[in-house]
């Protein structure tokens, strides 16, 4: 096997990835991957943020992810969320999207949420990120 140049291996320190999560309970098959991939990247020393907007905010509502699976017989979405948090993924929720889903930021969100932000924070995260991925 040929030796790979040392430059081949990326130094993930100071790398930032932002997932923009617009998918929610109506498309459960799209709801596990951002948490799983985010946890993998965070374990590789990448700064990972998941920003929930549109229907994605529903995943951060108490009682939703605890009853949702991406596929029949699979892990609960809440378990993927907990795995991502343990790995260091930071979860941000879009404040302007909450009223449309009748979600109160002060009482209805799961404990794993790190911050509730306006769209300007999403814009800032995207501009500072090395990669932005949407689901």
Task: Please trace the helix and strand order, writing H or E for each element.
Answer: EHEHEEHE
What's the level 1 CATH class?
A: Alpha Beta
CATH topology: Hypothetical Protein Ychn, Chain: A
| Annotated CATH homologous superfamily | DsrEFH-like
Shape: globular
N- and C-termini, Cα separation? 37 Å
Quickly give the CATH architecture.
Answer: 3-Layer(aba) Sandwich
The neighbouring-strand order within the major sheet is 4-3-2-1-5
Kindly name the structural category: alpha/beta
> How many domains, in number, for the residues?
1
Portion of residues in beta strands equals: 15-25%
Ranges with pLDDT <50 over ≥5 residues?
Answer: none
**How many strands appear in the DSSP assignment?**
5
Helix proportion: 10-25%
Describe the main β-sheet briefly.
5 strands, parallel
What oligomeric arrangement do these chains adopt?
A: single chain
The helix tally amounts to 3
What's the topology here?
Elements (H helix, E strand, L loop, with lengths): L15 E6 L11 H11 L3 E6 L24 H11 L2 E5 L20 E3 L1 H10 L2 E4 L1
Parallel strand pairs: 1-2, 1-5, 2-3, 3-4
Helix pairs in contact: 1-2
What's the short version?
With 135 residues, the protein is of the alpha/beta class. The protein has helices at residues 33-43, 77-87, 119-128, and strands spanning 16-21, 47-52, 90-94, 115-117, 131-134. Helix content is 24%, strand content 18%.
